[in-house]
Specification:
By secondary structure, the chain is α+β, with helices and mostly antiparallel strands. Helix content is 59%, strand content 12%. It has a two-stranded antiparallel ribbon. A two-stranded antiparallel ribbon has the order 3-4. A hairpin with a 5-residue loop joins strand 3 and strand 4.
């Protein structure tokens, strides 16, 4: 990694590292497994499923299980976008100013972990509606809570690393 000062904002050139390659390989393998499970769940689902619920958890909208592929595709594309963003860390919007190499390293790692969690959200969406006898919100809520914990944890680490 090399810090470059450009127009009063530090930019960093990120080159391929072993860590980055491992994250990308894990992402690719996980994506294949997740999409195999998603397609399996959608193929085994009934022709009409509940797709929307009111505040009390009662279904008030129905549709085809194939409609669940749209948000799953969006989450997968967002995960790929996060992996790409890891190579441009100066574009990552952080609540603290990133000045040191260590802060950039932590922001890059946080972004890569968030990409993996996005794949879990990809799986959680159809799981919420198809994997149980009655729809359960915990798969989506659990993965979003995990994402929040990871982001807060890394933001604290990045803030503490400002003097490194």
């Amino acid at each position: 990694m090399k810090l470059i000062k450009q127009k009063e904002k530090q930019k960093i050139q990120v080159h391929r590292t072993t860590e980055g390659t491992i994250f990308e390989m894990v992402f690719a393998v996980l994506a294949v497994v997740v999409w195999a499970l998603v397609i399996l769940m959608v193929c085994r689902a009934p022709d009409v499923i509940a797709t929307h619920f009111d505040a009390h958890g009662h279904p008030n909208g129905y549709g085809s299980p194939w409609g669940l592929l749209v948000p799953s595709i969006i989450m997968t594309v967002a995960g790929v976008g996060l992996l790409v963003c890891a190579y441009y860390p100066h574009l990552i919007n952080m609540p603290v100013e990133i000045k040191t190499t260590r802060q950039f390293e932590l922001a890059i790692r946080m972004t890569r972990i968030a990409a993996l969690i996005m794949l879990l959200v990809t799986l959680a969406i159809p799981m919420t509606l198809l994997a149980f006898a009655t729809p359960q919100p915990w798969p989506v809520l659990g993965t979003l809570a995990l994402m929040l914990v990871v982001i807060v944890y890394y933001c604290v680490l990045i803030h503490r690393a400002k003097t490194s």
